[in-house]
Amino acid sequence: MTQAVAILGPGAVGGALAVRLANANIRTICVARAEAAGIIALSGIVVETAGGTLSARVEVTEHLAAPVALLLVTVKAPMLREALERVDPTSVEQGVVVPLLNGLEHMEVLRERFDGRVAAGTIARYQAHRAGRVQIVEATPHPVVTIASDTLPRTELEAAAGLLQQAGVDARVGQSEKRVLWHKLARIAPLAAATSASGRTLGEVRDDPLWRTRLEHALAETCQVAEAEGVPLRYPEQWTIIDRMADETTTSAARDVAAGRRSELDAIVGAVLRVAERHGIECPALEELAVLAGLP
Question: Which terminus of the chain faces fewer neighbouring Cβ atoms within 10 Å, N or C?
């Protein structure tokens, strides 16, 4: 089978990965809505990195039907169902579908469409935003992609990770789907809630005693929920990771809330609160942040 990689949703994350894959001479197909597809076809994609500028002309289509070895799903959660209509399930019958979305509940949506070809995935240590229709600006240089599946053979996961590694991405195979998802979600949920509710950067949140306490308590709660799901996470270790993040760190959810766009708050924070409710765990700090951020 062809070693092509498709990117469903070539925004900041998807576009940056697409450029790296294309520059590694891997056939790369971006799947996008008509307007975005036309712009990418005309102008390509440009990524501004700390080390310089990367750019690439990639294949682009409004509907994926060609077989691919790897489908990276990089749309935001509110747009997922609509975006999936642009992918023919037969295109990944022998491939692996890896969503790089925040949250948990997208896994069920993807499995409805692609049956047993879906693996869990996360991208960490990475921040980027779109500065224009085809221009992406990276704030962090070295993303880490982790893939895991409780059903797919490890050889298939390693092959999928290998395609990303060829493009210079630190791609790893994790131990289990829950572990991969919760290791990021336990931090991103309180971070997204705190930065969205406060309208502040992480540095500003940490420097304010009230907001810092809210964030600390919310993180402790998400670690408790993760443990109830069978993923033990030590709060001190998770706080150390947050405490070492750059002062200017924010979240895409906070940027969307500030701009009045649809955000992923429900997919991120709401998902944690729904799991907590299922286990009978109270999360007053996370709930307070969710309300302050505007989550119903």
Answer: C
State the Cα–Cα distance between residues 227 and 276, nearest whole angstrom: 11
Whole-model pTM over 0.90: yes
Residue 229 amino acid letter = E
User: Which residues, at least 6 apart from 160, have a Cβ–Cβ distance to it below 8 Å?
Assistant: 69, 70, 96, 98, 119, 147, 171
Do residues 130 and 10 lie in contact, with contact meaning Cβ atoms separated by under 8 Å? no
Residues 30 and 18 sit within 8 Å (Cβ to Cβ): yes
Render each residue's pLDDT in the chain as its tens digit; 296 residues.
458 999 999 999 999 999 999 999 999 999 999 999 999 999 999 999 888 999 999 999 999 999 999 999 999 999 999 999 999 999 999 999 999 999 999 999 999 999 999 999 999 888 888 888 889 998 877 789 999 999 999 999 999 999 999 999 999 999 999 999 999 999 999 999 999 999 999 999 999 999 999 999 999 999 999 999 999 999 999 999 999 999 999 999 999 999 999 999 999 999 999 999 999 999 999 999 999 999 98
Query: And the tokens for 57?
Result: 């002309």
